[in-house]
Amino acid sequence: MANLLWLQSGGCGGCTMSLLNAESPDLLTRLEAAGIELLWHPSLSEETGSEVHALLQRILEGELALDFLCLEGAVLQGPQGTGRFHLLGGTGIPMMEWVRQLAEKARYTLAIGSCAAYGGMTSAGINPSEATGLQYEGELPGGLLGSEYRAHSGLPVINVAGCPTHPEWVLETLMELVWDAPDRQRYDAWQRPRLYTDSLVHHGCARNEYYEYKASAEQLGQQGCMMEHLGCLGTQAHADCNTRPWNGQGSCIQGGYPCINCTAPEFEEPRSTFLETPKLAGIPVGLPRDMPKAWFVALASLSKAATPQRLRDNAVAEQLIYPPTIKHKKNN
Fold it and tell me: pLDDT tens-digit profile of 34-81?
């Protein structure tokens, strides 16, 4: 059995809430099938207080192997680098010190969610709690453990980024590590698992026909593409949300809200509000990946000129008005 310890730091607990939505099979059945024993989770385990302290001490003393150290939430280093904004209950020791020591014992260290990976929402604004990620502070390498940190497997921190992260991203990453040898090539430049970041949120989007014709929604609740006016970053965001939806059918875009690229470092500090598309001379600043600006302008102009009236009207409606035309075969 592979031992997994899950700790929570500065965050909302949303990644745990998402993890509980694992299905076919459920979370605990999946862990058992993969040969993973959950040593402790602050929301799911019965042990508290001295029992948890004793468990952590056994790991630090080498009596109990730690295969997976999972941290959810940003590391709180404040005030003034002391970490005393977040003490592990009953120990008087900052959580960041526990994490630092446990990471030295772990075969694999995983940052669960964008807060643990890069600081995320917890680090937004003036960041009074001095929140940071495990191995990144926003886009900058470093974080709590430093850019040179490697777990006993030889891998750096694995950033299962997302806000929240999808339960399958977590579970498939764990299963991949249990069953296969460590391989740095399975992670992208931000140390995120490529099993989901080799896709774009744009892939599988139910609004792709509107995107292709640049038939755009102007307000939330309308049917059209949300890239041109409502800040949708699905063409730039690395994740498979629309081909691997939550609960079998949900994603931000399917729920009527634009993608905010929550798997990326510093997504919480956009250049404008989440519901606004920054433009320069009327052209969206954030263009699709690998697409030159001149091409986009030319294709967008052609697409708008060719937009069927059905899409023009449906794009700014709150529900479909006109269905696709039914064509009858002509008699010979």
Answer: 999 999 999 999 999 999 999 999 999 999 999 999 999 999 999 999
Compute the distance between CA of residue 87 and CA of residue 55 in angstroms, rounded to an integer.
17
CATH 3.40.50.700 residue ranges for the chain = 2-197
How far is residue 228's CA from residue 275's CA, in Å, rounded to a whole number?
10
**Has residue 299 got a pLDDT over 90?**
no
- CATH class (in words) of the domain with range 199-319: few secondary structures
| pLDDT tens by residue, 32-46 | 999 999 999 999 999
**Domain covering 2-197, topology:** Rossmann fold (3.40.50)
CB-based burial of residue 21 (10 Å sphere; 0-12 exposed, 13-18 middle, 19+ buried)? middle
**DSSP three-state, residue 173:** helix
In terms of Cα–Cα distance, which of 111, 110, 107 is closest to 64?
107
CA separation, residue 159 to residues 14, 110, 115, 178, 266 (Å): 16, 6, 10, 17, 14
Which residue, 80, 190, 72, is CA-closest to 127? Answer: 80
Contact 263, 238 (CB under 8 A): yes
Rounded to whole angstroms, the Cα distance separating 60 from 48 reads 18
